[in-house]
Request: fold
Amino acid sequence: MKLVGIVGSNADVSYNRKLLQFIKKHYKSLFELELIEIKDVPLFNQSDDQTNSEVIQRIHRKILSADGVIIATPEHNHTIPAGLKSLLEWLSFNIHSLENKPVMIVGASYFDQGSSRAQLHLRQILDAPGVNAIVMPGNEFLLGKVKEAFDEYGNLKDKGTVEFLRECLEKFVRFVNVVAVLEGPKKEPAPPEDLYATGKIDTTVEGVDMNADDWLEQAAEAVGAVEGNTYVKLNRGLLTVDQINYFLASMPMELTYADNNNQFIYYNHTLPAEEMLASRTPGQVGNPLAICHPDAALKNVEWVIQQLRSGETDAVRVHVPTHGPDKYVVHTYQAMHDNDGNYAGINEYVVDLKPHIDWYLQQTGQKLVGAGDTVTSTDNGAEKADAVSGASIKG
Amino acid sequence: MKKLLAIVGTNSDQSTNRQLLQFIQRHFSKQADIEIQEIRDIPLFNKPEDRKLPEIVETIANKIEAADGVIISTPEYDHAVPASLINALNWLSYGIYPFVDKPVMITGASYGTLGSSRAQLHLRQILDAPELKARIMPSSEFLLSYSLQAFDEENHLKDQTQVEKLEGLFEDFLAFVEMVNQLTEVHEFNKREAANFSWE
Reply:
């Protein structure tokens, strides 16, 4: 079972972080826990929608792909801290990351009550229609007097507390399963992806080192690949290999082919890596996907492939904001299928949408209107910020 | 004339809570000198170890200290007070205690039916925390529902019953301010308790 733990404090020193770290370490036989920090989450402002910022999107994706969420909240002013509330507002404004997600609340504080009031508020917030999480009832875990609670290794000292926490967490694991039943039949969890491409499909070229810089040359020789002015019959047309290359090189996007054995076997090479929107080097062709991605990204790579292979979706789209405000670069991972509908791999195409949008606006004389422009659009039945149902926009 | 500070409980550019406070400011200009206070420029609270407060927080704290009473108008986000208002209150009780024993009236406006009722209840609990410890006017809910349709072109509240209720509440609030000024016995203790609150 995969859970994420949200550290409800943005402070450098936080006992709620410590508590989650202890849970992650000490109860790892129950579940895998990934911690989420809220330090970089901007203060929510409905007039300045930052739903698409990298930090919100990253947290959104992590929550979506988790089976359940544990939130550890401190208590400030008898309620949850502004930073945590801010995150929940972002996650319920234009996206609804926590919808139907099983959530468990824990909290640590310096005083005896251990964030009891904040936890009650948090329950009510998570129950609001825009958030719509499914909070585990009962099993309140309040850790009071935190300063004395941990030993030097970050372990909870009191045996009774450790045991009680285990009981709460075991119940939460069962609760996650109960919610899954409540939500109706779900597909079996997708099997893990073989990102090192150790398997073999009909088109895998054997006997050539996938990591070799000249994999292409070796593999082409091994299979006797055609090139140049040899004709290839296509659906539907007749082109030479040269013509196919001209054609693909002129596509206004960066194209990458990863086959269904998770091997990177093609990209339309027209630019040096440093000039590409998503850099690729000629030597990478042939690599298993695990080799041409940083380790930290492998979880996401796997998740994307699982979505596509399982048919959960045919396309996963991600905006990559690191190119600055003059570009709007979108990576689309499009599932490919053979004639019988079997998954055949991924067509990843990377496009800067900005020039297209600019051109469209210029041609039609239209202007973009920000989603934060609330008053003018409320006639559409949208429930906006002041609305009773919360920070979510509907409709 | 009494001096009141009216805090807009959101950082949004468009807010019917701001509109409501502007109406209150104009409508009661003969009874009280009301200044409207925005919170949108307050940075995100992160418990800085050096306890240094942003300048804007110091400014607002001084205005609260100087005021005879405070009105806070809150929207409702996710059944609760908006993060931006929580944020302001976090700062305004971090090593400073301008709210201790300060008379406060809560109002709220919302686009829907319930007029921020849940957020107002939370706000009462929040303001009652030892490090804030305001004197909240009891039994005085003012909920403005369907707030987008509530004002005419001159920004007057259209519903006369609502105006009457507000007039009654405002009179009461001025009396409440007087009364709280006489409740001085526990003030020093409350100040001490607020200062003892540990944010560590």
Chain B touches chain A through 52 residues (CB under 8 Å). Residues 2-196 of chain B form a domain with the Rossmann fold fold (CATH 3.40.50.360). Residues 40 and 47 of chain B are 18 Å apart (CA to CA).
